[in-house]
Design a protein that fits this description.
Blueprint (H helix, E strand, L loop, with lengths): L1 E5 L9 H4 L5 H20 L2 H25 L2 E8 L2 E3 L3 E10 L8 E5 L10 E4 L7 E9 L4 E5 L2 E6 L6 E5 L4 E6 L22 E5 L3 E8 L11 H7 L3 E9 L2 E6 L14 H18 L3 E6 L20 H11 L11 H8 L5 E6 L4 H8 L8 E6 L17 H10 L3 E5 L5 H8 L31 E3 L5 E3 L36
Helix pairs in contact: 2-3, 5-6, 8-9
Length: about 500
């Protein structure tokens, strides 16, 4: 919970003369009537009228003096729980007023300032607060738009019991509500390439501590003598020490296209917000799976500068995830028109998994995006199908064919998927993990689904079918080499009855 005691706002204290401006209509009427009665008593020589005039004049002035001293003896504080919420979620704000004076307060009106996007300005009317007492109220705020929103200042309006004066006290404490993008859970699919963060096949690299490597190296000045490998020393005739290694965390890059010309519309249901939410979901998913994640934009700059470019942990990554989401909470459209800066930033990268969320791509940008994939690395692209989303009439660029852009990326080795309105990111993520990088799911000849070893469904041995007598039968559309040999690749034969002249002899081979 974020909280803070509210003190007087700078320049808002004022003096006693400034407090006279808080006289209500009733207080001003009493003051005017008192002065008029005093003047008439002097003209008419009526002492009783003078006493009435003094009473009417002194009463509002006493109320101003008492209220002026009381407002600086009332403190206010605000608590925000939680201070970071996802778009569409609610947060609760707790307000507390304490009377630390020896006199009770009059009627209090409490008002907190909030941005318009969070809802109307909350107002509360509080009864008198006894000396040393407190009052607590709360309200809820919600935003469907990500961003950082200031809360405050807290304003307190005090009224005396006679209603002669109203004074407003402003408190200088502010709180900030951070609305981060929506994060949806993604299925744990294997995307291939460098995606070794799922628990198997972790890469290892030499380090100063960790499990011993069986390959020794020569002794260097400063090496610990306890690491001397005596068997290798006797073999090579010089001091040899054990090299040591430790697991190397798999790393990935999430690329977010923020070009303003690549997206249309605004609001929580706009394609740009979908892309930001998708980038947040992918980055959080990879970090939870043990990846070291770098977040890039089309400008070539790492958004998560506070994380040192790469961060993430399989166990304790809450702080890194929070920093990443805070950064994405304020990301906005860029003025760039090209993906060249991002391409330059990825040029020196050492590989790893690349997940990109692209807006609308023309021919040049699609070709440039295809070159971003590193050789041997896995690259997954979610490309906006601009023709399917609502068009902005003021957009200077026409929508391009999504199929043509996807074909360009797939030919470059990407696993490319189109994003239409209402697309489910978990379903697209599952589809991306359902086939290898850069290729869409394909079928074998005659519609048989492809199996891991090249066979069709129901033929796990990849081209031969077992016969009752131990022989193998040729599957239509494939050629099997003779036992113990290998033959050249032969185009698939057209579908035909497998044995037009009857079954083969027992124990024979096709």
């Amino acid at each position: 919970m974020a909280s803070g005691e509210a003190g007087p706002r700078p320049g808002g204290g004022g003096g006693l003369w400034a407090s006279l401006g808080g006289l209500t209509t009733r207080g001003r009427s009493f003051l005017a009537a008192g002065i008029a009665a005093a003047a008439c008593s002097y003209v008419l020589g009526q002492s009783d009228l003078l006493r009435v005039g003094l009473l009417l004049t002194v009463l509002p002035l006493v109320c101003v003096i008492v209220l002026h001293g009381t407002r600086h003896r009332v403190t206010g504080s605000r608590g925000l729980a939680p201070s970071r919420v996802h778009a569409g979620s609610e947060a609760r704000v707790h307000l507390r007023v304490d009377n630390i004076s020896r006199l009770p307060t009059g009627l209090l009106m409490l008002q907190d300032r909030v941005p318009y996007v969070l809802g109307p300005r909350p107002r509360f009317v509080l009864d008198r607060v006894e000396p040393g007492g407190r009052r607590e109220v709360s309200y809820r705020i919600r935003s469907d738009l990500r961003g950082r929103y200031p809360l405050g200042p807290l304003q307190l309006r005090l009224t005396d019991p006679f209603g002669m004066c109203e004074l407003t006290r402003g408190f200088g404490a502010f709180d900030t509500l951070t609305v981060v993008p929506r994060v949806v859970p993604l299925p744990a699919v294997r995307l291939g390439g460098e995606a070794t963060g799922y628990g198997d096949g972790r890469h290892r690299s030499p380090a100063l501590a960790g499990a011993d490597d069986i390959i020794p190296r020569g002794y260097r000045h400063g090496d610990d003598l306890r690491r001397v490998h005596w068997r290798s020393t006797a073999r090579y005739g010089e001091l040899m020490v054990r090299r040591e290694e430790q697991p190397q965390r798999a790393h990935g890059t999430v690329l977010l296209d923020t070009r303003g010309i690549a997206f249309d519309g605004a609001g929580p249901d706009s394609p740009f917000e979908w892309a930001v939410s998708g980038a947040a979901s992918a980055a959080v998913h990879l970090m939870e799976r043990g990846f070291s994640v770098r977040l890039l934009t089309d400008a070539g700059s790492a958004l998560a500068d506070g994380m040192g470019g790469r961060s993430g942990s399989s166990h304790d990554s809450a702080e890194a995830v929070g920093l990443l989401l805070d950064t994405l909470a304020v990301v906005d459209h860029s003025d760039g028109e090209s993906l060249a800066p991002a391409h330059e930033a990825l040029r020196g990268d050492g590989g790893g998994l690349l997940v990109a969320f692209f807006g609308d791509l023309d021919d040049r940008q699609a070709a440039l995006a295809g070159q971003m994939r590193r050789g041997g690395g896995t690259a997954v692209a979610f490309v906006l199908d601009r023709s399917a989303w609502p068009q902005d009439a003021r957009s200077p660029r026409p929508a391009h064919s999504a199929e043509q852009r996807l074909r360009t990326l797939r030919e470059a080795g990407w696993t490319a998927l189109a994003v239409a309105p209402g697309a489910s990111l978990p379903e697209l993520w599952r589809m991306a993990g359902g086939h290898g990088p850069g290729s869409a799911p394909t079928d074998t000849p005659h519609g048989a689904p492809r199996m891991p070893h090249g066979g069709a469904a129901g033929q796990p041995d990849g081209g031969t079918a077992r016969q009752p007598h131990g022989g193998t039968a040729m599957r239509p559309g494939s050629v099997t080499a003779a036992a113990g040999g290998s033959g050249p690749s032969v185009p698939p034969m057209p579908a035909a009855p497998p044995w037009p002249f009857g079954p083969p002899p027992a124990g024979g081979r096709a």
